[in-house]
Amino acid sequence: MKFSDILKSASSNLMRNKGRTILTIVAIFIGAFTISLTTGVNIGVNDYIDKQVGSVGGENQIFVQPKMEMNMGNSDEPTKYDPDKKTSTMSQIQAMTEKDVEKIKELKGIDSVEPMKSATIDYIEGTNGEKYVFSASSTMEDMNIDLETGKTVSQDSTAFEINLAPEYVKSLGFKSSKDAVGKTVKLGTAPTLGGEEKVVEAKIVGVRNTSLIQGGMSLMNRSLVDKLVEINEEGLPENMQNQYGMVIAAADKNSTKEDITAIKDRLDKAGYTGSTVEDEIGMIRNIINAITGVLTMFGAIALLAASFGIINTLYMSVQERTREIGLMKAMGLSSGKVFTIFSVEAALIGFLGSVLGILGAVGVGALVNQIAADSFLEALTGFTLIQFSAGSSLVIILVIMAIAFLAGTLPARRAAKLDPIESLRYE
What we know:
- It is a multi-pass membrane protein.
- Residues 21-258 form the MacB-like periplasmic core domain.
- This is Permease.
- Keywords: Cell membrane, Membrane, Transmembrane, Transmembrane helix.
- The protein has 2 domains: 3-54 and 283-425, no CATH class; 61-276, no CATH class.
- Strand 10 (184-189) and strand 11 form a beta hairpin.
- Strands 5, 6, 7, 8, 9, 10, 11 and 12 form an 8-stranded mixed beta sheet that branches. A 4-stranded antiparallel beta sheet has the order 4-13-1-14. The protein has a two-stranded antiparallel sheet with strand order 2-3.
- It is built from 11 helices and 14 strands.
- By secondary structure, it is of the alpha+beta class.
- Helices cover 50% and strands 14% of the residues.
- The longest helix has 44 residues, at 277-320.
């Protein structure tokens, strides 16, 4: 008996009692639907988090700052004043210089170090002549900017380029994000010590999607940042120039989490603190995974209940088909073949229920995404709440079929053990 014949037999046998089979499939549908939907939420949220993380820094980039000597009143003695450090009532924070950059470069495991330059911008002016308060930060290597349209600023270009935050598009006189790309804006800035205000023109090469982490923050390429910093530092004493609050240390691209931890330990011993984007946002990711994990458990409970339904369905099927089983065995069908027929029936119930559940989840997910995009997620461009992947859907189908198969082994085993003579006498 070929497997194709077994499959046809299993399919026809399931239709003998349509009501019982449909109710069992519905039970599996509920479990598969719940698991697929919660998995889709998990994929969608984590995908958005990954986009946000990519817009801040690469996986192997470490944000390095000087250690902060906190004085909260809990120590036995107050912190001594150091004239070479910038101070505040809460801490002493030393501004970083080129010496710090060179020192960090020498640490094992670090490939490159780039200062995080900060420029003061007074305003931005668009095509309509209106001026708005404006803030922007520099772009680092390996940053994956989540853009609505356009391209990422080029770090190698000598032209002044900017990835504009979406909040400024309409205010600066542009019809849409696409209309803004290629246009020029004016940035007003002045020396820190005071002096004549200067205007720097920059080209918009892309418009960002809304960022939760960097809300309202535009991004500039290296050339533009250097120009603005040059203007800000005009007239400053030499010892007050080229100072940074933070530098970005890039580890080897093949570095593991253990390697990154080791680098942060070396930074600590050298007098610095190092942190990655994942350190800052990891807790949010864990909370999302925990919530979707709990919701997935409800789907697992529904599948557990459905497995008992499969056992009941097939036990009753064995009871009703006892004489038929005896006849098949009397005609030479082995116990193994009988076991396979009933096991395939169970797996087929799992397959139908899981596929229908996933299709239902995809349909509901599309509806929820549309409603979310038009309401509470309207401001978060680029955020698709529920996403599905072929890989996760296939895993769900295979797992549910495996559960159904295991649930069907008990009645299948009972059918395989039936004595053909006794079965033929069964009334």
